[in-house]
Amino acid sequence: LIIIAARPSVGKTAFALNLAKNMAIVGEASVGIFSLEMSREQLIQRLLCMESLVDLQKVRRGWLNDDEWKRLVQGASKLMKANIIVDDESNLEPRVLRAKARRMKKEYNVDAIFIDYLQLMNLGDRRDSRQQEISEISRSLKLLARELDISIIALSQLSRAVEQREDKRPRLSDLRESGAIEQDADVVIFLYRDEYYKKQHVDLPHETEIIIGKQRNGPIGTVTLMFNPSFTNFFEADVFHSEE
């Protein structure tokens, strides 16, 4: 079980979609995506812009030049060949997810499943405290990953406690509503963008720290990537500057 966590609007979904796209296109893996927040059409549009390096806003408005159309067609061709299965049911309980994931494994032999995002899941009519609910959801994802022998990558929100500190880099204690998420996860990845907090005074406006806060079988540490909001894409610094 892998958790990707950040405050809202830092780029959790963009980072997860970059991972999913690269796994499917470069790694030729079969990937399932459960999108509780975004419709299937919106999600595919974002994947297409990432792969084609075409501005998402231009696509939405239809303001594209010939070169951008050409890149979109090439990107669409790659995405159509990739094995990415999207489910956009917004009201998802663990038992429903389990049934759908088993079907995905049986029909498409998925290697990984992404869930965007964990706090939008619920236990139906049960009236447990939110903390108990999140603990149970987190545990169910861990067991499902083991049962199907796949990676489950779940996005998670962080608590507002981050905002009260001077150093706003996330910590494990910031995982929202449950210490169980920290306990169940094999890997916890935090995203941190200085730009998010210091919009006027940042040196590199697109720099994002990818912080490995927990890794059960490996080292922890920080990797810096560049985020291009036009394509909602992450790059290594040298690639990013050559694209600008």
TrEMBL record:
Keywords: ATP-binding, Helicase, Hydrolase, Nucleotide-binding. InterPro entries: DNA_helicase_DnaB-like_C, P-loop_NTPase. It comes from the Bacteria. The keyword Repeat does not apply. Residues 1-241 form the SF4 helicase domain. PROSITE patterns: SF4_HELICASE. The keyword Hydrolase applies. GO terms for cellular component: cytosol. GO terms for biological process: DNA replication. SUPFAM superfamilies: P-loop containing nucleoside triphosphate hydrolases (SSF52540). One of its GO terms (molecular function) is ATP binding. This is Replicative DNA helicase. The lineage of its organism: Bacteria, Thermotogati, Thermotogota, Thermotogae, Thermotogales.
